[in-house]
Amino acid sequence: MTDTTPTPSAATGPAPAKAGRIAFLGLGHMGLPMAANLVAAGYDVAGYDVVPAAVDAARAAGIPTAESALDAAAGARIVLTMFPSGAHLLRAYLGGPAEPGLLAQADPGTLFLDCSTITVEESREAADAALAAGHRSADAPVSGGVVGAEAGTLTFMVGADEADLPQLMPLLEVMGRKIVHCGGHGAGQAAKICNNMILGASMIVSSEAFVLGEKLGLSHQALFDVISTASGQCWAVTTNCPVPGPVPTSPANRDYRPGFAGALMAKDLGLALAALQSTGVAAEIGPAAAAIYQRYAAGEGATRDFSGIITDIRHASAGGPAAAGDGTAGDGPAGDDAVAADDSVGG
Ligand code: NAD
Q: For residues 104 and 106, what is the distance between their CA atoms, to the nearest angstrom?
């Protein structure tokens, strides 16, 4: 794994004017601000989304748009996708009975860059199909959420041939702050799901610890002061603390508005679970975390931050002995409308 975090001397690839057209497909929560940053940096972007309202929003944000995905991809040097799932990606690449696919229509040698979060298998299948059609391929899923997409501070986990990095890096540097080349095709997706499996599991156990602390009469601040400087230290506590007060920018201070929604954590843990099963890893915590977030996302966790899992744990613990309240009294400003800092958004 190569850490290619941008430095002032790292931008050795083509300047925006020489980079050629970028077809940017998928202008949703993440794609729109990412495409807007490319436009602002001087890149020639042709955006498209299957949802007309998303195309309208992109145009309003100053992103040039095309009439269709194929129009956007015509003559493009790079086709960048930011889709909900691998099924969307493969359908767009391969087409269907009534619609030609992007791979068949693009100019030979086009670089297909997928930034969606999908399974490792789907990612490798997409790369194999792109290569078989005479193109090049890279996967570069992101972490950092919508706030990171807007600020251009995403982390990109890249699976690509070394030879394609000079073309990729300047582009990713516009949209991200940290870029790690993890290996060949699919390696970016692999790194992303491994990381998010740790994130999901550590948020659950951190939340369990805070509820246990409440039951034992500990204040949130006292427990935070210990965990954040002791061996239990983790991002789930120090940056996305599941109780209000100790970390003012964490979603707990704004009634668990995301941040990183429980539904997205459930999706990523589902991808991790599929990988655990297909590789035969004897994991117990990852699958348990996946089941817990599936349950959370089926209810209010669909739209709440993934750290809101603590409210489920607290409710399920309500019948136990010696409850010390709901844990919010005297522990900081619940409902504070703080906006998350760039590095406080998971996913
Ligand atoms: P989203 O649903 O808001 O956007 C996806 C867009 O893709 C939609 O607007 C959809 O209409 C469009 N689309 C689907 N098929 C298309 C096609 N064939 N052509 C053109 N457009 C098409 O999702 P999002 O929140 O932007 O997330 C995108 C990806 O990024 C997902 O894979 C997600 O897991 C990942 N991700 C999201 C976050 C986050 O915080 N939202 C964080 C990290 C990673």
A: 6
Residue bearing the CA closest to ligand 1, atom 9: 28
**192 belongs to the catalytic site:** yes
62, 36 Cβ separation under 8 angstroms: yes
Model confidence pLDDT, tens digit, residues 293-340: 999 999 999 999 999 999 999 999 997 554 444 443 333 322 222 223
Supply the mean pLDDT for the chain.
Answer: 90
pTM of the complete model: 0.89
Give the start-to-end residue ranges of the domains of the chain.
2-184, 191-345
Q: Give the CATH class of 191-345.
A: mainly alpha
pLDDT in tens, 205-222: 999 999 999 999 999 999
Atom of ligand 1 minimally distant from the CA of 264:
34
CB of 150 within 6 A of ligand 1: the answer is: no
| Proportion of the chain above pLDDT 90, given as a percent | 83
Nearest CA to ligand 1 atom 30: 116
Distance 325 CA to ligand 1 centre (A): 40
| CATH 3.40.50.1970 fits domain 2-184 | no
Contact between 84 and 92 (Cβ < 8 Å): no
DSSP string, 308-332: GHHHHHHHHTTTSSS---SS-TTSS
12 or 317, higher pLDDT: 317
Q: 188 CA to middle of ligand 1, Å?
A: 17
